[in-house]
Design goal:
Structural class: alpha+beta
Strand order of the largest sheet: 2-1-6-5-4-3
Distance between the termini: 27 Å
Radius of gyration: 15 Å
Largest sheet: 6 strands, mixed
Shape: globular
Helix content: 10-25%
Order of helices and strands: HHEEHEEEE
Number of helices: 3
Length: 162
């Protein structure tokens, strides 16, 4: 199925809302079992790393099971990035459908997240690149690459910051 621009936006806004509301079950349901979730790091020359298997990444999960483990840690207070509780507000912009055919939709967008923790507000921003599997009844995130532009951070980041 081909997605309309409005359907893509609604999907992305729903993911952001699930993160802000800490609705982990519905958030995880947006991801395919074999999803790749990658946040490359910037090297000393100011270039992004290109291979999560052989270079340092800020985050890398090669399956949804890794995301499920993060959620388990968040829920059971085993995530240092979450203690004390972190409140977030996600804002999305410049949403583009880059390519769409044969059960796949590639999307690019910019984002800004405000995070409140320790009575301080931190700001994170970047660009995300998603591949959505549109072959089923509902879209699923097959691939998620997040380029964090604000990579100087005072606290540990977690999946809900991005």
């Amino acid at each position: 199925m081909n997605l309309s621009y409005e359907a893509v936006c609604a999907f992305l806004y729903r993911e952001a809302r699930y993160l802000d509301e800490r609705d982990w079950d519905n958030w995880l349901a947006l991801y395919a079992p074999d999803v790749t979730f990658w946040v490359p790091s910037w090297d000393d020359d100011g270039k992004l790393t290109t291979d999560p298997q052989s270079e340092i990444s800020l985050m890398w999960y090669g399956r949804r099971a890794g995301l499920e483990d993060r959620v388990f840690r968040i829920r059971t207070d085993r995530s240092s990035a979450t203690i004390p509780d972190t409140r977030t507000s996600h804002h999305l912009s410049n949403i583009e459908i880059v390519e769409q055919d044969d059960g796949m939709c590639k999307v690019r967008f910019n984002w800004h997240t405000m995070s409140v923790r320790y009575n301080q507000t931190d700001h994170y921003c970047g660009t995300s690149f998603y591949t959505l599997d549109t072959s089923g009844n509902t879209p699923l995130i097959q691939n998620k690459k997040v380029v964090l532009k604000t990579d100087y951070i005072r606290h540990v980041i977690d999946i809900y910051h991005l």
